[in-house]
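Lab notebook page, bench 4
Experiment: in silico fold of construct C2
Operator: M.H.
Input chain length: 126 residues
Purpose: comparison with the prior construct
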Amino acid sequence: MKRIFSLAALMLPLTVFSGCRKTNVNHYNVLFKALRQNTLPAAGFRVDAWVKGRSEPKTKPTDSNGMATFDDLPAPDATHQLNTVLHYFMGKKDQSREIAYPFIESDAERLKDTQYIPNNAMPDPS
């Protein structure tokens, strides 16, 4: 009987703390801001983001502040870099700006970037 209580005492912390482990490894945060050259927010523009070799591109529009926030990407590293594409149109031609971010240790938890586009750029072809 003493062995059962000892075993139960050992198993209790394992069962309680096993639920504290992170189950979602896709928690890397990217804060992408699009501004026009005159520094006004660029709202409604599409931004794609993904980690090469670890995820497929996800697309989000910029909000009224020009921000596109991605909080569900896997963490990049030296061999799996973060990539983004900002789509804007000059007439009917997509002037997509592709950006590959090299891994820097200071960006290990999140990345903040600001990109400037022409003042007359449109979010959709006109």
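Observations: The chain has one helix and nine strands. The first strand starts at residue 28 and ends at 36.
Next step: discuss at group meeting.
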